[in-house]
């Protein structure tokens, strides 16, 4: 999402004052805070980052960090002298934690910082009016379940190339390291098309978007090969009602413009490109982003934002390939978006379900500007890598993944593995969990009947092959005759969830 009275958290920029002489959030210090992945998979390097923003305006010396890590069995205390001079617009300083036994950790970090002749100690962050919150992460004792030949990815996240008056993202290298920690195979960085069109150092100064997009691609290309990092976009496009909606483009060949709701032109927020024009401009898979996410009056009025509808999904030449209705949490936007997706399935439009997090950095939790100039807020949704899209691909390459999104071998999850395999005229559903995720509370299999004329029924049915209180590993065979498609959902006793794409019969 973007700026000004929004419901999507991000690394919070607090120094911009909208040309006013004051701001309750403004402090003559850089933004200083800690972040860490929400989990560490088996064998991954354990670290947290000290993040410094706007130190080029307010240079500081990082003197010392103290970190207390607590789990139910023990407390580990770390203390490290830094003596790092920081004067960069954005910098990430890693703090190695060493080996940690599996378990849930609550982490209380603090940092001592010197600015000229003043020395201050901040606990977790120096954000004004916001009580310090501990980091929380899990060190896993088991590998996350994933079937052979499948790859797990983050489909919606933002780097520092998404930056404006109140928010900013992370460095691609940091996202790659975090991806390795949480158990991702690929990351599609979907920075705002409109943010590419403005300077990173001056949010209101127009810049060459093609050059900035190419810079992101070059920066990503210079990284390690795995996890695979890809340069994508979140494009603002006009829907059938003339309103701005967001769509993600998976690794487009070139920059795609879309400035409709960039927030730089005040009330001049008409869409600058249509959905169909975006689709015509690329061969890459395109997805409807958070299609039914709730929005307030100001977001609708000032930014002219609307919702996706059925008319926006299918065109004569090309169509949207999927709907990203799982956007960090299973909230109202999730359930309304899932309903929208199921309605499209009933029309024979077998769109893929897509999951992502819309994380602007946000590796562990989220701080955002609630009201510009006035207040901040904190929550633990929209965390990088928490909701994953898992696809079956020939190989872990850009071309392999793009081809995979043309199939139906896709599921979305925040933990369990759930996938279909075709066996002759039948289908077999596999559901795998582990002890940390919990046994399955339920595995539900849905189908939509089809008559001899090829007409689909008005609603889905729940098949009797569905089960409750299922073990950690399940194999369920389903006959496909008489059905237009099959799909499945699974919930674990510890609250984790997975959902498959519809399998055409």
Features:
505 residues, mainly beta, Immunoglobulin-like, 16-stranded mixed beta sheet, 6-stranded mixed beta sheet, 7 helices
Give me a quick take on this structure.
The protein is mostly beta strands. Helices cover 12% and strands 39% of the residues. Among the domains are: 11-139, Immunoglobulin-like (Sandwich); 419-504, Immunoglobulin-like, CATH 2.60.40.
Model description:
Helix 5 links the parallel strand 16 (286-289) and strand 17. The longest helix has 14 residues, at 332-345. This protein has helices spanning 172-182, 193-196, 209-221, 275-280, 297-303, 332-345, 398-404, and strands spanning 11-12, 31-35, 39-40, 47-53, 60-70, 75-86, 90-96, 103-115, 118-123, 135-139, 150-158, 167-168, 186-192, 228-238, 244-249, 286-289, 322-327, 352-356, 359-360, 366-371, 375-379, 388-392, 410-413, 417-423, 426-432, 440-449, 461-462, 467-470, 473-479, 483-492, 497-500, 503-504. The chain has a 16-stranded mixed beta sheet that branches. Strands 3, 5, 6, 8, 9 and 10 form a six-stranded mixed beta sheet that branches. Strands 2-4-7 form a three-stranded antiparallel beta sheet, with no helix packed on it. It is globular, with a radius of gyration of 23 Å. Among the domains are: 11-139, Immunoglobulin-like; 419-504, Immunoglobulin-like. It is mainly beta and 505 residues long. Helix content is 12%, strand content 39%.
